[in-house]
């Protein structure tokens, strides 16, 4: 008989939010794989439980190397509990490789549901919650970040992001540039902790607020694109948008196609605007 892989949700702030089953799984697991063994120790102390099984580290730096070892243990009948620092394993945290490897070997995978920063922020944001997309962390480099945001510029579902506090102002400024300064958003900080804060407003307003410095764990919720018809854009604006995309690394053909799709125009119309601007820039 093969064993079972258990993904355990852990508190995102307040330890009292730990699901009751978590204590039982911590005590009964043959192996506890933890993103940070020191944080695991603090969690077990707070819950008043003792891990009887072997505790091993499982984090981004050793995830690829340790996965085969854990799969071998699972194949041998072990019950392996995977916990990360906060929230559900594999959601912007280590775990995906292990789940995929276990599924491939037809090993049972189950979960202890727990607190979620994504759903908590979404519920507190005051923005539509019927349909949403989780986008995780944006790229650190400015050009790549703008490119990723442009991919979802027309997305009508509410968007949820994680972000580091020292990059929040740049991220919100980039969002304001791509989505528009008036697009509604909410910055959720230190959820379920003592200094929990939810700051709501337009992206431009939030970017200015974040420029003063923000601390803590951050989740950003952004309103989806409005339902509207084709945008009324002049030739100059069409050319500017193509240039912005080219500067971010897109080929001209792809940039023209993307801008045409955004504006609801034929690609030929955008192409003609770009060619006309190029000819106008040539010396007489």
Automatic annotation (TrEMBL):
It holds the Pfam family TP_methylase. It comes from the Bacteria. Belongs to the methyltransferase superfamily. RsmI family. Catalyzes the 2'-O-methylation of the ribose of cytidine 1402 (C1402) in 16S rRNA. NCBIfam families: 16S rRNA (cytidine(1402)-2'-O)-methyltransferase (TIGR00096). HAMAP family: 16SrRNA_methyltr_I (MF_01877). This is Ribosomal RNA small subunit methyltransferase I. The lineage of its organism: Bacteria, Bacillati, Actinomycetota, Actinomycetes, Kitasatosporales. The gene is rsmI.
């Amino acid at each position: 008989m093969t064993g079972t892989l258990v993904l355990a949700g852990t508190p995102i702030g307040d330890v009292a939010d730990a699901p009751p089953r978590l204590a039982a799984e911590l005590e009964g697991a043959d192996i506890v794989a933890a993103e940070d063994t020191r944080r695991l120790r603090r969690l077990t102390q707070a819950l008043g439980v003792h891990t009887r099984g072997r505790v091993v580290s499982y984090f981004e730096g050793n995830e690829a190397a340790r996965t085969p070892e854990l799969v071998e243990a699972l194949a041998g009948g072990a019950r392996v509990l995977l916990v990360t620092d906060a929230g559900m394993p594999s959601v912007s945290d280590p775990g995906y490789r292990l789940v995929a490897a276990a599924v491939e070997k037809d090993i049972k995978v189950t979960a202890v549901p727990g607190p979620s920063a994504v759903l908590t922020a979404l519920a507190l944001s005051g923005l539509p919650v019927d349909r949403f997309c989780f986008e995780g962390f944006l790229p650190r480099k400015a050009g790549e970040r703008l490119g990723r945001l442009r991919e979802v510029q027309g997305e009508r579902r509410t968007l949820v992001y994680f972000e580091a506090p020292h990059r929040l102002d740049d991220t919100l400024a980039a969002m304001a540039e791509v989505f528009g300064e008036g697009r509604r958003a909410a910055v959720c900080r230190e959820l379920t902790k003592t200094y929990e804060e939810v700051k709501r407003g337009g992206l431009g307003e939030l970017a200015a607020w974040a420029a003063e410095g923000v601390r803590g764990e951050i989740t950003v919720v952004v309103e989806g694109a409005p339902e509207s018809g084709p945008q009324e854009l002049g030739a100059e604006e069409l050319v500017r948008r193509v240039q912005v995309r080219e500067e971010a690394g897109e080929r001209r053909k792809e940039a023209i196609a993307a801008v045409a799709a955004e504006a609801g125009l034929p690609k030929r119309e955008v192409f003609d605007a770009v060619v006309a601007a190029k000819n106008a820039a040539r010396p007489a």
